[in-house]
Structures are given as C-alpha cells and as structure tokens.
Amino acid sequence: MSPSDVKPPINWPAIIVLFSTPLAALIAIPLYAWFADFSTAAWVLMVGYLFANGLGITMGYHRLWSHRAFEAHWLVKIPLMLLGTAAIQNSILMWGSGHRVHHRHVDDVDKDPYSARRGFWFSHMGWMIRDYPTGYADFSNAQDLLKDPIVMFQHNHYIKLVLLMNFGVPMLFGWLVGDFWGVVLLMGLLRLVLSHHTTFFINSLAHMWGSQPYTDENTARDNFVVALFTYGEGYHNFHHIFQYDFRNGVKWWQYDPTKWLILACSWVGLTKNLKRVPDFTIRKAQLQMQFKRAQRQLEASASRLPMMDVEALKQRMTHEYDAFMATLNEWGTLKEEWYAEKKQALADKKQELTLKWEEADFSARFKEMENRLQMQSRRLEQMMRQAFPTPV
After folding, report:
1. Which of 157, 307, 330, 356 has its CA 20 to 30 A from that of 122?
2. What is the pTM of this model?
3. What is the phi/psi pair of residue 272, to 5°?
4. Is 235 in contact with 222 (CB distance < 8 Å)?
5. What is the pLDDT of residues 277-288, one digit of tens each?
6. Which of 239, 272, 305 represents a domain boundary (last residue)?
7. What range defines the domain where residue 342 resides?
8. Which of these, 104, 121, 101, 124, lies nearest to 113 by C-alpha position?
9. Does residue 392 belong to any structural domain of this protein?
10. Is the dihedral of CA 55, 252, 207, 151 positive or negative?
C-alpha cells in the first residue's frame, strides 16, 4: 500500500486553528458590524497587517530562509521573522525544511508534503490536518537554518511569539485607535483567515491553474491572479525551475512586490547577494517550451492540414531548432573562452585594463546571443500563428 493511501492520525492543533478561525470570523464579524460597526482605522490596519505578514512569509520564510535567494541584515531578518510568525504557518525551521522537500520531490504523491497530484483539497490544506508521513520533520536538509540564531530563537519560543503577534499587536493598536474589538476582529482574526488561504493558494491553485512558459516537467503554473493575492508568488512555473532566483515575477511588468522590496532594501545595504538566473538561461527555457508546444500542435493538427503544408512546417521547425542548438553550442564555447580569458587575466594583475576591455567585449557577445534567442522566439511564434490562426 502506498503511503498516500494511509489515513494517519488527525492533527488536532491544525484542525482547531484552521477551522475555528474562519468559523469565528463568520459569526463575530457580522455581529460586531451590526451592533457597533468597524472604524476606518480597523480596516486600514487589517489591510496593512495582512500585507506585512504576507511579506513575512514570501520575503522571509520563502525567498530568504527556504531558498537563500539573497542575504539580509538582522534589521530586516527580525521584522520578517516576527511578521511571518503572525501568519501562524509553523516556525521558519519547520516551514523551510518542508518547503525544500516539496521542491526536491515536487508532485511525488509519496514524498511531496503537499503534492498537487493528490487533489486541490489536499494541496490547499488537507495535508496539514492529518499527520501524514510526508509532513514529518527531518532537518537534515536545513543545517543552515539550525545554525541561524534568529530562526532558532523563533523555533524555541514559537507559541509565545504567535500569541504576541496575533493578540498582543492587534490589542495594542485597537487601544491606540480607540476601536479595541474592531481592530482585534479585523486585524487579528479576519486578517489571519485571509492570510492562510491566500498563502495556501500557492500550493493548490498555482499548481493547477495558469500557464507553463518555462517547463512542463511539474504541475507549477504562472498565474497573474494568484500573484495579486500572494505578493508575487503566483509566478510559480518560473519559481519551480529557477527556485534560487530572488524574483518570481521575472518580467519588469509582472506584479511582484516581494521582489521590489528585496531590491529596494539592497539599495540601502539591508539586503545583498541577490541571486539572478542569467537572461540567456531564462530565454532558453522559454524557447524550449515553445518548441515543445509547437511540435504538439503540429502533431495534433497534422491530419487537418494539406500534406504539403505539414512538410513545409516540419522543415521550418527543424531549421529553427537547428539554429537554436547552434546558438546553445556557441554560448557554451563562448562561456569556456570567457572563463579561460578571465583566469589568465587575473593571474597577472598588470592586465587589469585588458581584463576590463575583454569583459565588455564578452558582455556584448553574450547579449547578442540573448537577442538572437529573443528574435528566434518571435519567429517561431509568428510561424505558428500563421499556420494555426485563431478562429474569430
């Protein structure tokens, strides 16, 4: 019997938190609105705290601690730790270790803690309400987190910090603005429910709804709508193939406030060593997926097209693919040449000016190859549009 078929014991703490909070919100918030009404300050504080504790998860738990996509000053790490704690999604150590398992075994029903192949309910929250074997803590993949004093402080004092951030902070602000119960209900309770389910959408909806522009080797999708509610995490197809990039929305126009905050912090020295996947590598992945989709579309439509048109398309596609492979080979050769030249130049410090000139030359040649892939992507897209026009 597969481990995924076993019904393990119920996780009662998770059941209580995940089901009592929305039930309490459904009862208490309408009653309070009917008898007392909420202040504008309570709504503003709820939205602000929701956004802040969301960033505690996306920027802190996820991109900083789980993936080490950048480094941060303690002045950034401590607020991110506290705000992430407010989301009540377990400690950084537990969350980060489990998330690394998810990436290593994505979609494996017996190893991925929240495999989307086990259905929407399971990946959204079902995986938390029972003590499934895939959810057992194994910190062998989190030695760096075990050595982080901020992570371990939170882990050792997690319950106290949860109470502080979910009761103490809302009660303080409620007292300050003169709407104690209104702020507690909105900033404390409703914010927590919304925070839970928007975050859970990354495990569920972002593996089931959207596009796959970079890879179809797993279920992860890019979805702008999910990104809106998850501070940029909805660009999940990109993230699963390039998990160590500090960006999820890699295009300049994609909504990713987590990326923008990390970048803004780097301008004032609060974050550093921001990891980026080279543009050429990203374009290569996109073009490989374009070839895959084009091949599938051609095979699916071959019977409806004249034989002459099918053969012509196959020849054009073969030509484009040969050009693509030639560019990849040329890139590899240039990369080897660049490493050799840099090693030689660095061996002699007197060649510092020569090194700068050669760096600029190599940079221009690399950029030319990136542009070549971009132009090829456009040609392939245009070719497929002409061959298979969208019906009006």
Report:
1. 157
2. 0.88
3. -155, 175
4. yes
5. 988 889 889 888
6. 272
7. 279-387
8. 101
9. no
10. negative
